[in-house]
Amino acid sequence: MEPKLIITTLPGKDKKCKAEILDRLLIKDENVQIDEIKQNVFLIYSKLSPLEAYGLIISAPPSCIGRIFTIDKISDLSNIFEDAEKLLSSKKFKKFYVECINRGNKQADCRSIEIGIGLRMKGKLQVDYKNPDYILFVNLIGNKVYLSIMRKGQEKVSVNSL
Question: THUMP domain: from which residue to which, for each copy (predicted)?
Answer without folding.
Answer: 32-151
